[in-house]
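ok, trying the design again with the full structure, not the truncated one.
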C-alpha cells in the first residue's frame, strides 16, 4: 500500500477509531502502518473492555484518522456486527457438554 504524501513538514499520525455506542477507543498505528489487523483475542478483549457482555451481538464502527499537525482527516465509517466470547470458562456449568463429541467425554467423567 502506497503511503500518502501531504507536502508539509509534519509527521502524520495514523489511528483507527473504534466506536461502540457513545464510547470510542483510538488505536494508534505504529511504524506508519496504514492498516490494522486485529487478532481474534485482541478484538475480543477490546470488545469486553467496552463493557459488551459475551455472546451479545453488537455493532462496531471503524473510522480511519490521520492527524497532520492541527488538521484531522477522517475516512468513511465502516460498520461491523461482532459478538464477543467469554475469556474465562465457567466450569461450574455443563454448557460445554452439549456437543455429541464432548458429551461422551463428559459422560465418561459423569458430569
Amino acid at each position: 500500500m502506497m503511503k500518502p504524501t501531504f507536502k508539509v513538514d509534519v509527521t502524520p499520525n495514523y489511528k483507527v477509531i473504534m466506536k461502540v455506542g457513545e464510547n470510542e477507543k483510538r488505536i494508534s498505528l505504529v511504524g506508519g502502518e496504514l492498516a490494522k489487523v486485529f487478532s481474534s483475542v485482541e478484538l475480543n478483549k477490546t470488545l469486553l473492555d467496552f463493557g459488551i457482555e459475551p455472546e451479545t451481538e453488537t455493532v462496531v464502527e471503524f473510522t480511519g484518522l490521520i492527524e497532520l499537525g492541527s488538521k484531522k482527516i477522517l475516512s468513511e465509517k465502516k460498520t461491523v456486527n461482532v459478538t464477543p466470547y467469554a475469556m474465562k470458562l465457567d466450569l461450574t456449568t455443563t454448557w460445554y457438554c452439549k456437543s455429541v463429541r464432548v458429551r461422551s467425554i463428559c459422560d465418561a467423567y459423569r458430569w
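Keeping the full-length input from now on. The helical segments are 40-49, 100-108.
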